[in-house]
Specification:
Number of strands: 2
Protein name: Cytochrome C
Low-confidence stretches: none
Shape: elongated
Mean pLDDT: 82
Keywords: Electron transport, Heme, Iron, Metal-binding, Transport
Pfam family, one: Cytochrom_C
GO molecular function: electron transfer activity; heme binding; metal ion binding
CATH architecture of the largest domain: Orthogonal Bundle
Order of helices and strands: HEEHHHHHHH
Structural class: mainly alpha
Radius of gyration: 25 Å
Number of helices: 8
Largest sheet: 2 strands, antiparallel
CATH class of the largest domain: Mainly Alpha
CATH topology of the largest domain: Cytochrome Bc1 Complex, Chain D, domain 2
Helix content: 40-55%
Length: about 170
């Protein structure tokens, strides 16, 4: 039958197995990741896929002079859905971010009533299509210290379409 000694052995076996499993998981994570705090780990072994080279070629192919004419503003409206949580398209209607009415060609940091972090004025003077393109790709990389928390738009086509859409809201 099942006495206390047998029951203790069964529970001890399960606890030992759990301990071995957790130690194995910890060891595997330690071997695979190097680095500090949560979210900042770096993979020890990175597989090169060639995406960095493709991204450099893609950026070089952008013609900023004709970008607004050739981009699709209707697709840019869909991309603007990612911006809608923090930005409005009505003049003077600031939200968590400044209003984007007439942003293409507007001076950087010139939205009335919005308190900017100051990092943008150090990088550019005017929101040209080229400046918007690089800012939308990686806001914190292009303007270190900016308070914009958005990670950026990875696809070049999305950035071009969004800039074309924003250009339709100008005076």
């Amino acid at each position: 039958m099942l006495d206390t000694m047998t029951f203790t052995k069964i529970v001890g076996s399960f606890c030992g197995a759990l301990l071995i499993f957790l130690l194995g998981k910890w060891a595997a994570e330690t071997l695979y990741h190097v680095g500090g705090a949560h979210g900042e780990e770096v993979a020890v072994y990175v597989i090169e896929t060639g995406e960095a080279e493709a991204a450099e070629e893609e950026v070089a192919a952008v013609n900023f002079d004709t970008m607004i004419e050739t981009a699709d503003a209707a697709k840019g409206e869909k991309v603007f859905g990612k911006c809608r949580a923090c930005h409005k398209l009505e003049a003077g209607a600031n939200a968590a971010g400044p209003y984007l009415y007439n942003v293409v060609g507007r001076d950087v940091g010139a939205a009335d009533g919005f308190n900017y972090s100051g990092a943008l004025n150090e990088v550019a003077d005017v929101w040209t299509p080229e400046n918007l393109y690089y800012f939308l790709e990686n806001p914190r990389g292009w303007a270190p210290g900016t308070s914009m928390g958005f990670a950026g738009l990875g696809k070049s086509e999305d950035r071009q379409n969004l800039i074309a859409y924003l250009a339709t809201f100008s005076e």
